[in-house]
Amino acid sequence: MIVKKILNNNVITSNNEKGQEIIIMGKGIGWKLKPGDLIDESKIEKTFSMDTATSTARLRQLFLEVRLESVQAGTRIVDYAIKNLGKELKKNVYIMLTDHIDFAIERFQKGITFKTALYWEIQKIYPREFAIGRYALDIIEQCCHIRLPDEEAASIALHLVNAEYDGNMNRTENMISIVNGALNIVRCVLKVDLDQESLDYQRFVTHLLFFAQRVLDKKPLEHQGDFLYETMKQGYPAAFGCARKIGEYVNSRHGVVAGEEELTFLTVHIVRVASVRGGGITP
Q1: What Cα–Cα distance (Å) separates residue 39 from each residue in 43, 122, 210?
Q2: 135-157 as b/e, with b when 16 or more CB fall inside 10 Å?
Q3: Rounded to whole angstroms, how far apart are CA atoms 226 and 69?
């Protein structure tokens, strides 16, 4: 590969076989090189190939502004997350997470700390991402020699969740808010403790995440038939009433009416998750 541009001693750009710009990172990889020189591929630590020219330009600019250690930490965290989540993440996560880490370190060094408003919600709703966020604190400490507060685990997890979906942080926060609101309604209305380790709880959270996506897209499930709806309504009035409260909640917050189909499946899951420890859902 040929050097296209030298950003600094540790980051250069080149073109791949398709002629697309790529960003290459490696300690000392740009030392004494100039455009047109051959790249010593043994020094390559990471190659970034973004989806658009705009995101490539943003990443290029970011690498000019942040410390190398933040880039290394962000890269290791994203690669670890992809491996352990078993799914691809939006490539912009390299930009957003690296920028977050560098700014978090700067704030910490100045004695400025922020509480993550959704700390407990993220921990409950996205336990895998939160666990990666906690491990990420170790990676940051190894790369940057700074131990960030535990609250940063939730912030990092939120960036990962965001990268799993459409890359819109506000949407991700709204999804978490809907899920957490629904879980709290179940707890308060039925007066039950939900077993967060149970399979039924995980299924319910998964259903709520998809429910939240439909609410935000304003595309609730369409009515398919009334047999199961009437069965759940008549057979499990307390659970159905709880589902209706969730429907009222999303309608007041997001202007979406949860119809019979949505209420039916919410009730099915509520019956299962609340039955784990009993709690007044039977007729």
Answers
A1: 8, 42, 46
A2: bbbebbeebbeeebeeebbbbbb
A3: 59
Predicted TM-score (pTM) of the model is 0.71
Q: What is the pLDDT of residue 117?
A: 62
Give pLDDT tens digits for 195-218. 887 878 888 988 998 899 899 988
Average pLDDT over residues 223-250: 87
Token couple for 202: 């995980």
Distance separating alpha carbons of residues 58 and 95, to the nearest angstrom: 8
3-state secondary structure the chain: CECCEEEECCEEEEECCCCCEEEEECCCCCCCCCCCCECCHHHCCEEECCCCHHHHHHHHHHHHHCCHHHHHHHHHHHHHHHHHHCCCCCCCHHHHHHHHHHHHHHHHHCCCCCCCCCHHHHHHHCHHHHHHHHHHHHHHHHHHCCCCCCHHHHHHHHHHHHHHCCCCHHHHHHHHHHHHHHHHHHHHHHCCCCCCCCHHHHHHHHHHHHHHHHHHHCCCCCCCCCHHHHHHHHHCHHHHHHHHHHHHHHHHHHCCCCCHHHHHHHHHHHHHHHHECECCCCC
Give the side-chain half-sphere CA count within 13 A for 175. Answer: 26
Contact by Cβ (8 Å): 222, 261: yes
